[in-house]
Amino acid sequence: MCAKEKPLASCDITVRGAGIFGLSIAWVATMRGAKVQVVDPNGPASGSSGGIVGALAPHVPENWNAKKAFQLESLLMADGFWAEVEKAGGGSAGYARNGRLQPVQNDHALALAQQRQTTAQDVWQDNAQWQVIPASNTAWEPATPSGYVIRDTLSALIHPRQACEALVLALRAKDVCFSRDAKDSGKVLWATGVAGLEQMTANHTRSMGNGVKGQAALLDFDARGMAQLFADGVHIIPHQNGTVAIGSTSERDYASPDETDVLLDEVIAKARAAVPVLDNAQVVQRWAGVRPRARSRAPMLGASPDRPDHFIANGGFKIGFGMAPKVAHVMVDLILEGRDTIPDGFRVTDNL
Q1: Nearest Cα to Cα of residue 325 among 37, 72, 124
Q2: CB neighbours (10 Å) of residue 83?
Q3: Which of 13, 169, 196, 292 stands 20 to 30 A from 49 (CA)?
Q4: Angle CA 207–212–216, to nearest 5
Protein backbone atom coordinates (compact mmCIF):
# COMPACT_ATOMS: atom_id res chain seq x y z
CA MET A 1 0.00 0.00 0.00
CA CYS A 2 1.25 3.49 -0.82
CA ALA A 3 1.52 6.36 1.63
CA LYS A 4 -1.83 8.13 1.94
CA GLU A 5 -3.13 5.66 -0.69
CA LYS A 6 -1.97 7.89 -3.57
CA PRO A 7 0.10 5.69 -5.92
CA LEU A 8 2.46 7.61 -8.15
CA ALA A 9 1.71 7.39 -11.86
CA SER A 10 5.45 7.29 -12.49
CA CYS A 11 8.63 7.34 -10.44
CA ASP A 12 12.19 8.46 -10.87
CA ILE A 13 13.48 5.44 -8.96
CA THR A 14 12.08 2.05 -8.09
CA VAL A 15 13.88 0.58 -5.10
CA ARG A 16 13.62 -3.19 -4.94
CA GLY A 17 14.41 -4.35 -1.44
CA ALA A 18 13.34 -2.72 1.83
CA GLY A 19 16.33 -3.56 3.96
CA ILE A 20 18.77 -0.99 5.31
CA PHE A 21 20.47 -0.25 1.96
CA GLY A 22 17.22 0.04 0.02
CA LEU A 23 15.46 2.20 2.62
CA SER A 24 18.47 4.49 3.14
CA ILE A 25 18.92 5.05 -0.59
CA ALA A 26 15.19 5.70 -0.97
CA TRP A 27 15.42 8.26 1.83
CA VAL A 28 18.36 10.20 0.41
CA ALA A 29 16.85 10.13 -3.10
CA THR A 30 13.56 11.45 -1.72
CA MET A 31 15.33 14.23 0.16
CA ARG A 32 16.98 15.26 -3.11
CA GLY A 33 13.59 15.62 -4.75
CA ALA A 34 13.19 12.28 -6.53
CA LYS A 35 9.89 10.43 -6.75
CA VAL A 36 10.52 6.99 -5.27
CA GLN A 37 8.64 3.75 -4.82
CA VAL A 38 9.88 0.89 -2.63
CA VAL A 39 8.97 -2.68 -3.56
CA ASP A 40 9.57 -5.72 -1.37
CA PRO A 41 7.42 -8.87 -1.54
CA ASN A 42 8.02 -9.57 2.15
CA GLY A 43 7.72 -6.04 3.51
CA PRO A 44 10.33 -3.79 5.18
CA ALA A 45 13.15 -5.30 7.26
CA SER A 46 11.99 -8.84 6.56
CA GLY A 47 15.54 -10.13 6.08
CA SER A 48 18.70 -9.63 8.08
CA SER A 49 17.99 -5.90 8.42
CA GLY A 50 15.30 -6.88 10.90
CA GLY A 51 17.95 -8.06 13.34
CA ILE A 52 18.61 -6.97 16.92
CA VAL A 53 22.35 -6.36 17.43
CA GLY A 54 23.31 -3.05 15.78
CA ALA A 55 27.01 -2.57 16.54
CA LEU A 56 28.23 0.38 14.46
CA ALA A 57 31.89 -0.27 15.15
CA PRO A 58 34.90 0.78 13.07
CA HIS A 59 37.65 -1.33 11.61
CA VAL A 60 40.93 -1.11 13.49
CA PRO A 61 42.86 2.10 12.65
CA GLU A 62 45.77 0.53 10.80
CA ASN A 63 46.61 -0.57 7.24
CA TRP A 64 44.38 2.27 6.12
CA ASN A 65 42.51 1.74 2.84
CA ALA A 66 39.50 2.96 0.87
CA LYS A 67 37.09 0.63 2.68
CA LYS A 68 38.13 1.90 6.12
CA ALA A 69 38.04 5.54 4.97
CA PHE A 70 34.55 5.04 3.52
CA GLN A 71 33.36 3.48 6.77
CA LEU A 72 34.85 6.33 8.81
CA GLU A 73 33.01 8.92 6.71
CA SER A 74 29.77 6.98 7.08
CA LEU A 75 30.07 6.59 10.85
CA LEU A 76 30.68 10.32 11.16
CA MET A 77 27.61 11.04 9.01
CA ALA A 78 25.37 8.86 11.17
CA ASP A 79 24.45 11.46 13.81
CA GLY A 80 22.95 13.83 11.27
CA PHE A 81 21.47 11.10 9.10
CA TRP A 82 19.45 9.45 11.87
CA ALA A 83 18.46 12.75 13.48
CA GLU A 84 16.93 13.82 10.16
CA VAL A 85 15.10 10.50 9.75
CA GLU A 86 13.68 10.63 13.27
CA LYS A 87 12.56 14.25 12.88
CA ALA A 88 10.78 13.53 9.60
CA GLY A 89 8.86 10.45 10.68
CA GLY A 90 8.72 10.61 14.47
CA GLY A 91 10.18 7.13 14.98
CA SER A 92 13.23 6.22 17.03
CA ALA A 93 16.15 4.40 15.42
CA GLY A 94 17.72 3.64 18.80
CA TYR A 95 20.89 5.39 17.66
CA ALA A 96 23.54 6.56 20.15
CA ARG A 97 27.25 7.19 19.82
CA ASN A 98 28.43 6.01 23.23
CA GLY A 99 31.73 4.43 22.19
CA ARG A 100 33.06 0.95 22.85
CA LEU A 101 35.24 -0.90 25.37
CA GLN A 102 37.41 -3.94 24.56
CA PRO A 103 39.65 -5.96 26.89
CA VAL A 104 43.39 -6.24 26.28
CA GLN A 105 44.44 -9.85 26.77
CA ASN A 106 48.23 -9.75 27.20
CA ASP A 107 51.43 -7.73 26.79
CA HIS A 108 51.59 -8.36 23.03
CA ALA A 109 48.00 -7.17 22.57
CA LEU A 110 48.76 -4.15 24.78
CA ALA A 111 51.70 -3.09 22.61
CA LEU A 112 49.56 -3.48 19.46
CA ALA A 113 46.70 -1.48 20.99
CA GLN A 114 49.08 1.33 21.95
CA GLN A 115 50.45 1.38 18.42
CA ARG A 116 46.92 1.68 17.06
CA GLN A 117 46.29 4.55 19.45
CA THR A 118 48.97 6.52 17.60
CA THR A 119 47.68 5.46 14.19
CA ALA A 120 44.13 6.51 15.08
CA GLN A 121 45.35 10.04 15.75
CA ASP A 122 46.58 10.17 12.15
CA VAL A 123 43.60 8.64 10.35
CA TRP A 124 40.67 9.61 12.61
CA GLN A 125 42.23 12.99 13.41
CA ASP A 126 40.04 15.04 15.77
CA ASN A 127 36.87 13.15 14.90
CA ALA A 128 37.30 10.35 17.45
CA GLN A 129 39.82 8.70 19.74
CA TRP A 130 41.23 5.20 20.22
CA GLN A 131 42.63 5.07 23.75
CA VAL A 132 44.34 2.45 25.89
CA ILE A 133 43.34 3.10 29.49
CA PRO A 134 43.54 1.27 32.84
CA ALA A 135 40.49 -0.83 33.66
CA SER A 136 38.13 0.86 36.10
CA ASN A 137 36.74 -2.44 37.46
CA THR A 138 33.17 -1.27 37.18
CA ALA A 139 30.32 -3.73 36.63
CA TRP A 140 29.80 -2.64 33.00
CA GLU A 141 33.28 -3.43 31.75
CA PRO A 142 34.69 -6.60 30.22
CA ALA A 143 37.10 -8.70 32.24
CA THR A 144 40.63 -7.85 31.10
CA PRO A 145 43.67 -9.99 32.04
CA SER A 146 46.16 -7.19 31.31
CA GLY A 147 44.40 -4.63 33.48
CA TYR A 148 43.83 -2.39 30.44
CA VAL A 149 40.94 -1.78 28.07
CA ILE A 150 40.64 -0.12 24.68
CA ARG A 151 38.13 2.70 24.55
CA ASP A 152 37.14 4.21 21.24
CA THR A 153 34.76 7.11 20.87
CA LEU A 154 33.83 6.40 17.24
CA SER A 155 31.65 3.33 17.82
CA ALA A 156 27.90 3.84 17.93
CA LEU A 157 24.91 1.57 18.31
CA ILE A 158 21.51 1.31 16.71
CA HIS A 159 18.51 -0.99 16.95
CA PRO A 160 18.34 -2.42 13.40
CA ARG A 161 14.64 -3.24 13.32
CA GLN A 162 13.68 0.08 14.88
CA ALA A 163 15.96 1.94 12.49
CA CYS A 164 14.22 0.39 9.49
CA GLU A 165 10.84 1.24 11.01
CA ALA A 166 12.01 4.84 11.51
CA LEU A 167 13.03 5.03 7.86
CA VAL A 168 9.65 3.68 6.75
CA LEU A 169 7.85 6.31 8.84
CA ALA A 170 10.06 9.06 7.42
CA LEU A 171 9.52 7.89 3.84
CA ARG A 172 5.77 7.61 4.31
CA ALA A 173 5.76 11.15 5.67
CA LYS A 174 7.24 12.18 2.31
CA ASP A 175 4.54 10.27 0.39
CA VAL A 176 6.84 7.49 -0.76
CA CYS A 177 4.92 4.50 -2.09
CA PHE A 178 5.51 1.05 -0.53
CA SER A 179 4.34 -2.05 -2.33
CA ARG A 180 4.80 -5.80 -2.20
CA ASP A 181 4.28 -6.10 -5.96
CA ALA A 182 4.64 -3.21 -8.40
CA LYS A 183 6.02 -2.71 -11.89
CA ASP A 184 9.33 -0.96 -12.40
CA SER A 185 9.14 2.76 -13.06
CA GLY A 186 12.14 4.94 -13.75
CA LYS A 187 15.59 3.73 -12.84
CA VAL A 188 15.73 0.58 -10.75
CA LEU A 189 17.87 -0.11 -7.69
CA TRP A 190 18.32 -3.71 -6.59
CA ALA A 191 19.04 -4.00 -2.87
CA THR A 192 17.71 -7.50 -2.40
CA GLY A 193 20.28 -9.09 -0.09
CA VAL A 194 20.97 -12.80 -0.24
CA ALA A 195 18.32 -13.41 -2.90
CA GLY A 196 20.00 -10.79 -5.07
CA LEU A 197 23.42 -12.38 -4.65
CA GLU A 198 21.99 -15.75 -5.63
CA GLN A 199 20.33 -14.27 -8.71
CA MET A 200 23.53 -12.53 -9.82
CA THR A 201 25.53 -15.71 -9.30
CA ALA A 202 23.08 -17.61 -11.51
CA ASN A 203 23.70 -15.06 -14.29
CA HIS A 204 27.52 -15.19 -14.13
CA THR A 205 30.31 -17.71 -14.27
CA ARG A 206 31.46 -17.29 -10.65
CA SER A 207 29.93 -16.71 -7.25
CA MET A 208 28.95 -13.11 -6.54
CA GLY A 209 28.63 -13.78 -2.83
CA ASN A 210 26.78 -15.87 -0.32
CA GLY A 211 24.63 -15.77 2.76
CA VAL A 212 26.19 -16.06 6.21
CA LYS A 213 23.88 -16.96 9.06
CA GLY A 214 24.02 -15.05 12.31
CA GLN A 215 22.38 -15.75 15.66
CA ALA A 216 21.77 -13.20 18.41
CA ALA A 217 19.82 -12.71 21.63
CA LEU A 218 18.22 -9.94 23.65
CA LEU A 219 18.67 -9.90 27.42
CA ASP A 220 16.43 -8.11 29.89
CA PHE A 221 19.09 -5.84 31.37
CA ASP A 222 19.05 -2.05 31.44
CA ALA A 223 22.44 -0.54 30.63
CA ARG A 224 21.21 2.27 28.41
CA GLY A 225 23.69 5.10 28.00
CA MET A 226 26.69 2.84 28.56
CA ALA A 227 29.38 1.98 26.00
CA GLN A 228 29.00 -1.11 23.89
CA LEU A 229 31.42 -3.94 24.67
CA PHE A 230 33.36 -6.33 22.46
CA ALA A 231 34.92 -9.33 24.18
CA ASP A 232 35.87 -12.85 23.08
CA GLY A 233 34.48 -12.15 19.61
CA VAL A 234 31.05 -11.16 20.97
CA HIS A 235 29.25 -7.81 20.62
CA ILE A 236 27.37 -6.70 23.75
CA ILE A 237 25.05 -3.81 22.88
CA PRO A 238 23.14 -1.79 25.54
CA HIS A 239 20.09 -0.65 23.60
CA GLN A 240 18.18 2.52 24.37
CA ASN A 241 15.04 0.51 25.15
CA GLY A 242 16.54 -1.14 28.23
CA THR A 243 17.64 -4.42 26.67
CA VAL A 244 21.11 -5.75 25.88
CA ALA A 245 21.79 -7.46 22.56
CA ILE A 246 24.31 -10.28 22.38
CA GLY A 247 25.70 -11.44 19.04
CA SER A 248 26.62 -12.99 16.85
CA THR A 249 27.61 -16.19 15.10
CA SER A 250 28.98 -16.41 11.54
CA GLU A 251 27.86 -19.63 9.88
CA ARG A 252 28.61 -20.50 6.26
CA ASP A 253 26.87 -23.87 6.54
CA TYR A 254 23.40 -24.08 8.07
CA ALA A 255 20.27 -26.16 7.67
CA SER A 256 17.75 -23.76 9.24
CA PRO A 257 18.32 -20.08 8.34
CA ASP A 258 15.89 -18.66 10.89
CA GLU A 259 16.26 -21.06 13.83
CA THR A 260 18.59 -20.66 16.80
CA ASP A 261 20.52 -23.47 18.42
CA VAL A 262 23.38 -24.33 20.78
CA LEU A 263 25.73 -21.96 18.94
CA LEU A 264 23.71 -19.04 20.30
CA ASP A 265 23.87 -20.54 23.78
CA GLU A 266 27.66 -20.46 23.46
CA VAL A 267 27.62 -16.79 22.46
CA ILE A 268 25.44 -15.90 25.45
CA ALA A 269 27.76 -17.85 27.74
CA LYS A 270 30.78 -15.93 26.42
CA ALA A 271 29.04 -12.62 27.06
CA ARG A 272 28.17 -13.59 30.62
CA ALA A 273 31.71 -14.78 31.29
CA ALA A 274 33.10 -11.47 30.03
CA VAL A 275 30.55 -9.34 31.89
CA PRO A 276 29.33 -11.22 35.01
CA VAL A 277 26.67 -8.61 35.75
CA LEU A 278 24.70 -10.27 32.93
CA ASP A 279 24.67 -13.67 34.67
CA ASN A 280 21.06 -13.54 35.82
CA ALA A 281 19.65 -11.45 32.97
CA GLN A 282 16.72 -13.23 31.31
CA VAL A 283 16.87 -14.00 27.60
CA VAL A 284 13.76 -12.34 26.16
CA GLN A 285 14.37 -12.99 22.48
CA ARG A 286 16.43 -15.28 20.26
CA TRP A 287 17.02 -14.28 16.63
CA ALA A 288 18.58 -15.85 13.56
CA GLY A 289 18.93 -14.56 10.01
CA VAL A 290 21.12 -14.76 6.94
CA ARG A 291 23.26 -11.75 6.03
CA PRO A 292 24.50 -11.03 2.47
CA ARG A 293 28.27 -11.12 2.00
CA ALA A 294 29.62 -10.14 -1.41
CA ARG A 295 32.54 -12.11 -2.83
CA SER A 296 34.89 -9.14 -2.30
CA ARG A 297 33.67 -8.88 1.35
CA ALA A 298 33.03 -5.14 0.78
CA PRO A 299 29.63 -3.70 -0.10
CA MET A 300 28.81 -4.23 -3.78
CA LEU A 301 27.75 -0.93 -5.37
CA GLY A 302 27.22 0.44 -8.85
CA ALA A 303 25.50 0.03 -12.19
CA SER A 304 24.25 -3.40 -13.18
CA PRO A 305 26.58 -5.02 -15.73
CA ASP A 306 23.59 -6.64 -17.44
CA ARG A 307 20.83 -4.02 -17.68
CA PRO A 308 20.90 -0.31 -18.49
CA ASP A 309 19.42 2.02 -15.84
CA HIS A 310 19.54 -0.75 -13.25
CA PHE A 311 21.78 -0.43 -10.20
CA ILE A 312 22.94 -2.66 -7.34
CA ALA A 313 23.58 -2.07 -3.63
CA ASN A 314 24.24 -5.31 -1.81
CA GLY A 315 26.65 -7.11 0.50
CA GLY A 316 26.23 -5.09 3.67
CA PHE A 317 26.99 -8.21 5.74
CA LYS A 318 27.97 -7.14 9.28
CA ILE A 319 28.62 -3.47 8.49
CA GLY A 320 25.52 -2.54 6.51
CA PHE A 321 23.98 -0.21 9.08
CA GLY A 322 27.28 1.56 9.69
CA MET A 323 27.89 1.96 5.96
CA ALA A 324 24.31 2.93 5.05
CA PRO A 325 24.51 6.76 5.25
CA LYS A 326 27.52 6.97 2.94
CA VAL A 327 26.28 4.16 0.66
CA ALA A 328 23.00 6.02 0.23
CA HIS A 329 24.64 9.28 -0.84
CA VAL A 330 27.10 7.57 -3.19
CA MET A 331 24.35 5.56 -4.88
CA VAL A 332 22.06 8.57 -5.27
CA ASP A 333 24.96 10.55 -6.75
CA LEU A 334 25.26 7.81 -9.37
CA ILE A 335 21.58 7.15 -10.04
CA LEU A 336 20.30 10.73 -10.16
CA GLU A 337 23.37 12.69 -11.26
CA GLY A 338 25.57 10.18 -13.03
CA ARG A 339 28.48 10.95 -10.69
CA ASP A 340 30.51 7.85 -9.84
CA THR A 341 32.25 8.29 -6.48
CA ILE A 342 32.29 4.59 -5.56
CA PRO A 343 35.72 3.62 -4.20
CA ASP A 344 37.79 0.86 -5.73
CA GLY A 345 36.96 -2.46 -4.15
CA PHE A 346 33.28 -1.59 -3.77
CA ARG A 347 32.25 -1.83 -7.41
CA VAL A 348 29.97 -4.53 -8.77
CA THR A 349 32.68 -5.32 -11.33
CA ASP A 350 35.12 -6.16 -8.52
CA ASN A 351 33.02 -9.29 -7.92
CA LEU A 352 32.91 -10.44 -11.55
Answers
A1: 72
A2: 12
A3: 13
A4: 170
